[in-house]
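Entry 14. Ran structure prediction on the chain below.
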Amino acid sequence: MKAVSVLIDETRHAGVVEGDSVSIDGRPGGLDAILAGDGKIRPCTTIALADVTIDAPLRPPVVFCVGQNYADHLAEKEKIYRPEPEFFLKAGQTIAAPDEPAVLDPLVTSKLDYETELGIVIGRAGRAIPEDRAFDHVYGYVALNDLTARDRQVVLHPDGSRSMALGPGKNFDGATRMGRQVVTADEIGDPEDLLLVTTVDGEVRQRNTTRHLISSIPEIISFVSRMLTLQPGSVISTGTPGGTGWGADPELGGTGRTPDGLAVPGYLRPGQLVEGRIGELLSYSFRVTAPRPKTLLGTCARLNSGECGSP
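Output, structure tokens:
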């Protein structure tokens, strides 16, 4: 099943995509509300996809993220000690709607980087979940892009050393891109054998498979759930492979080791189209834009001149 959240009269509803149409559940709250209940979408009407606005399928309060989880990504930058999965949080307000552009805001970053990742969607609550029961808690999967401000993630010090700041590097408006649909686990097949590809303006920047995850999906679920109770609708991002712009940036520790067969990586620029695909059913796309010009000063000037008075 391909589950979505749609906006109808500014209210989110869950739906099931079938071809060019979507069958809508009349209850408000989107897929989040369905998963928080009994997890069953109950359609009451069918609408053409072209006639609805697709929202991000899920809007959890936070997104759980695992980093440093592919060997080729570790090889393209400074080595780190990795005794257990790197774990960090992204605020839920970083989640963008599928059709929103990614704004390259100079107040945030000049080094905006792409990271296609497989997202795990939790369907059944659990705490300290054993690895051999982890898949019992999975509702489905979603394609993600963990957009990152590399010049905020990597802090340069006066002595030439570097440190990491995942909070500001990972949390800004639009920093979490999510595909339009969550695909239920029964349709995905083996989630640890999916081809993952990122293209920028058609150039292949990342290409790997989830077979090469260092920490497996059961390990990730078990690890996160030892610290936090996983609730239905929780999303866990599993890490990105090599080919990022960071890998080609020696100032921030990039080694320049581009994985074989990939285009030379680089940071994102306005106008570029970023697309990601994981397996046959999971995908996302968005365009990078520059910020809109600020008009506040001009508006204030017109107010002061009396141009905006009553007719």
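The chain has a mean pLDDT of 93. Will compare against last week's run tomorrow.
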